[in-house]
Amino acid sequence: MLAILLPNYKTPELTKLCLRSLRKYTDCGRIRVIAVDNASGDESLAYLRSLSWIRLIERSESEIHGMSPALMHSSALDLALREVDAPYVISMHTDTIVHHPEWLDYLMKHITRSEKIAGVGSWKLEAGNGSSLEIHWKGGGGRIQNSDRQKAS
Fold first, then answer.
1. Do 107 and 141 fall within a single domain?
2. Domain region containing 145
3. Which tens digits make up the pLDDT trace of 108-149?
């Protein structure tokens, strides 16, 4: 069992894609998703509230007032970490889209190889010029518009 921590702030479409892909390609019996909404007040919060398979922590505007985006994100992770009872934790951003059913096994294989390994991660795909990214994987492919990624920043 492991915990997936997911801070959210005003990313409704990305949040839906992230969690739908996570559920599609992950055995939910192996994970516990803890989402922290940073006073989004938009449709992403309504979506998170509709999901019975996640634990949602809602922060009010007064809790995040004056925080930089980095501090808001890191303090959301701190809140979620207080509820973790699993030996492994994944910090996931709402712009993470899972594309393969073996993604979790791959990460777990590498982190459990040695007691000296404290963390593993995935790679980030981005185009700095506003162009689309072509993504190809065994059995499929897709396109992500860079402008969608910038909205999440």
1. no
2. 123-153
3. 998 999 999 888 877 665 556 555 455 444 444 444 444 443
Contact status, residue 48 vs residue 35, Cβ threshold 8 Å: yes
What are the respective helix, strand and coil percentages of the chain, to the nearest 5?
Answer: 35, 25, 40
Number of domains in the chain: 2
What element of type H or E holds 45? helix 43-49
81 in Cβ contact with 117 (< 8 Å) = no
Among residues 69, 91, 3, 73, the alpha carbon closest in space to that of 37 is found at 73
61-120 tens-digit pLDDT:
999 999 999 999 999 999 999 999 999 999 999 999 998 899 999 899 989 999 998 888
